[in-house]
Amino acid sequence: MTTIANNLQKVLGQMAQACQGAGRAPASVALLAVSKTFGPEAVHSAALAGQRAFGENYIQEAVEKMAALRALAPELAATLEWHCIGPIQSNKTRLVAEHFDWAQTVDRLKIAQRLSDQRPAHLPPLMVCIQVNVDGGATKSGVAPEEAVALAEAVARLPRLVLRGVLSIPDDAPDFEAQRALHARAAAIFERIKAQGFAGLERFDTLSMGMTGDLEAAIAAGSTLVRVGRGIFGARTYS
Ligand SMILES: *Cc1c(COP(=O)(O)O)cnc(C)c1O
């Protein structure tokens, strides 16, 4: 088994154990493999080991990686699902709309509108999550909790998007309970949006939270999608 395949098994085991500890069904939490900074060979290894959903932060890097994978393993590449989990600037919305299946980091209506307008007609609608800022840090991405419902309602009306859920990236917290408390804030926002019952919430089912260092706490707080990079691919080096 390759290191990546081995790591994937370990992470899936960790997730299953966290589900058991939280009294949740193992199938209620999915794994997004975060492949930023790693090459197409790493994604290929993970895909051969059965992983299908990949998350990327840097849009240009991701688009090049997708093309490399299509050249390397066309049939396998066609089965993969790509999630944008990095900041989306206005000048990058077209690339996201044309190449990704999901955009999880929508925090402004203007960006959502551009994604909807630019989603090519031959592709299914783009799946989106609203990014919420649960720490209140003014410099962080994400909509403020008190503005999340209004943004969700506006995004849900856009014709070429499907509102799937909420993403959060809380600051590092010192221990399990502190991590869980931050994740619980995002879970509360997810539930508040769901309770509004407006049109366009039919597929609102995704609470994207938890990474290598805090996936157990995120699962305890209700995460349905953990985003794991280092735990699968190893330490990242930035050039
Ligand atoms: C990098 C990143 C991850 C993965 O983090 P790890 O600590 O490597 O698991 C998850 N989510 C987002 C938004 C990221 O930027």
UniProtKB/TrEMBL annotation:
Does Cytoplasm appear among the keywords? no
- Plastid keyword on record: no
Q: Which Pfam families match?
A: Ala_racemase_N (PF01168)
List the coiled-coil residues: none
Which cofactors are reported in the record for this sequence? pyridoxal 5'-phosphate
Q: Which InterPro entries match?
A: Ala_racemase_N, PLP-binding_barrel, PyrdxlP_homeostasis
Q: Where is the Alanine racemase N-terminal domain?
A: 25-236
Function text: Pyridoxal 5'-phosphate (PLP)-binding protein, which is involved in PLP homeostasis.
NCBIfam families tied to this protein: YggS family pyridoxal phosphate-dependent enzyme (TIGR00044)
Protein's name according to its UniProt entry: Pyridoxal phosphate homeostasis protein
Upper lineage: Bacteria, Pseudomonadati, Pseudomonadota, Betaproteobacteria, Burkholderiales
